[in-house]
């Protein structure tokens, strides 16, 4: 088994029972790519070592052996890239101990940790290795958006740029500071809601705007986003409304009653809330959204199909918190709740006027008081049986 690399160049050592000849060879390539001296005692050097190049660039590399083992010459050497032997026409012997390699119009690295360029002896043993980094400098991050869950934290996400992929490991740091005073701070909890996001869990100030930006850095350069200025009170969101209940409205075959509870986390703060309801039939992925629920915590859906199972969700938008003039951010939708309308009683059935049953109607039968918004989102649904 290959010797361990020098301090500071450690690889993750595999478990002995997981070893196979192919794995051992890959492990040895890993070692020599970190330190040429790791290859079986042979003395060889690849130059340049661990180069970083732009996509489309050319590379001229050399592998030079220095008489160990005796008789080692450039005539027997060959190259591999990521374990695949390169065509001999890409190489040429410069002198008795040096083999050159010419690569043109390089593509982006297949792995962000770099491609493995390895020089081999005639018998296939590894003489030296180098990591080849080919990619692009980062672009300016864009589309920064942030929200505060119940005014206790701040989560932000962004887009890495127009092209996004750099083919190199690119580090993104979200920075923030109070607008008029204070020092720069760095967010530490990344990937909370996706690959380009960060979460600030505590120690946030209210009534004072923040400046927020993202810095991107890799081997080929750095870029900085525009600064986003925001007040925590203007980007508040909350939990979905709990305890959503959907039930029939007496014997009315085209209506359902929806009731819910305001999110408890904001009950102690001075704020208002508005709600949206969306619903769909059981065998459909298309949702209809009711926009005119206002700040009520109950309403009736009308104009529904008789004898049909509906799935219903509710979400909340807090606004006017401590006098903020901006609308908040919509919460996630509540867990879907299922209920069915009564089956049709036929032509002789008696149908009451929904407006005489108490409570606020979300939409009247066959009216267009709602604004339908179509979605193809699928949800996991737990049906609630009606008693």
UniProtKB/TrEMBL annotation:
Query: Which cell locations does it reside in?
Result: Secreted
Record's GO cellular component terms: CRLF-CLCF1 complex; external side of plasma membrane; receptor complex
Q: Which domain of life is it from?
A: Eukaryota
Q: Where is this region: Disordered?
A: 340-387
Q: Which UniProt keywords apply?
A: Disulfide bond, Glycoprotein, Immunoglobulin domain, Phosphoprotein, Receptor, Repeat, Secreted, Signal
Protein name stated in the entry: Cytokine receptor-like factor 1
- The species this protein belongs to is Piliocolobus tephrosceles (Ugandan red Colobus)
In alphabetical order, the GO MF annotations are: cytokine binding; cytokine receptor activity
The record ties this protein, via SMART domains, to: FN3 (SM00060)
Q: Which CDD domains match?
A: FN3
The similarity annotation says:
Belongs to the type I cytokine receptor family. Type 3 subfamily.
Q: Which InterPro entries match?
A: FN3_dom, FN3_sf, Growth/epo_recpt_lig-bind, Ig-like_dom_sf, Ig-like_fold, Type-I_Cytokine_Rcpt
Cited Gene3D superfamilies:
Immunoglobulins
Renumbered to this chain, the Basic and acidic residues biased-composition regions fall at 376-387
Q: Which GO terms describe its biological process?
A: cell surface receptor signaling pathway via STAT; negative regulation of neuron apoptotic process
The segment(s) forming the Fibronectin type-III domain are 140-235, 240-344
Listed PROSITE patterns: FN3
């Amino acid at each position: 088994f290959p010797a361990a690399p020098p301090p500071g160049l450690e690889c993750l050592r595999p478990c002995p029972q997981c070893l196979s000849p192919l794995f051992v060879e890959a492990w040895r390539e890993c070692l020599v790519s970190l330190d040429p001296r790791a290859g079986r005692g042979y003395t060889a050097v690849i130059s340049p070592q661990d180069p970083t190049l732009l996509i489309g660039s050319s590379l001229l590399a050399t592998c030079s052996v220095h008489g160990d083992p005796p008789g080692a010459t450039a005539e027997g050497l060959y190259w591999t890239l990521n374990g695949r032997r390169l065509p001999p026409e890409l190489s040429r012997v410069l002198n008795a101990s040096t083999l050159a390699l010419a690569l043109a119009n390089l593509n982006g690295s297949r792995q962000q940790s770099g491609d493995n360029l390895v020089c081999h002896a005639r018998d296939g043993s590894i003489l030296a290795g180098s990591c080849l980094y080919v990619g692009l400098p980062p672009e300016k991050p864009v589309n920064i958006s942030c929200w505060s869950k119940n005014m206790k934290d701040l989560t932000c996400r962004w887009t890495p740029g127009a092209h996004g992929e750099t083919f190199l490991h690119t580090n993104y740091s979200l920075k923030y500071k109070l607008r008029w005073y204070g020092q720069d701070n760095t967010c530490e909890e990344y990937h909370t809601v996706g690959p380009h996001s960060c979460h600030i869990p505590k120690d946030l100030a209210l009534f004072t705007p923040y400046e927020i930006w993202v810095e991107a850095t890799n081997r080929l350069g750095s870029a900085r986003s525009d600064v986003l200025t925001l007040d925590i009170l203007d980007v508040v969101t909350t939990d979905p409304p709990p305890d959503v209940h959907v039930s029939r409205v007496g014997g009315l075959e085209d209506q359902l009653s929806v009731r819910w509870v305001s999110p408890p986390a904001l009950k102690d703060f001075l704020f208002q809330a508005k709600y949206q309801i969306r619903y769909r039939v059981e065998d459909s992925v298309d949702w209809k959204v009711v926009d005119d629920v206002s700040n009520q915590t109950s309403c009736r859906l009308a104009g529904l199909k008789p004898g049909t199972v509906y799935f219903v969700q509710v979400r909340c938008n807090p606004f006017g918190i401590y006098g903020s003039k901006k609308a908040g951010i919509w919460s996630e939708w509540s867990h879907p709740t299922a209920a069915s309308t009564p089956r049709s009683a036929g032509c002789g059935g008696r149908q009451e006027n929904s407006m005489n049953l108490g409570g606020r109607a979300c939409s009247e039968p066959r009216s267009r008081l709602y604004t339908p918004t179509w979605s193809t989102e699928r949800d996991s649904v737990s049906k609630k049986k009606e008693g």
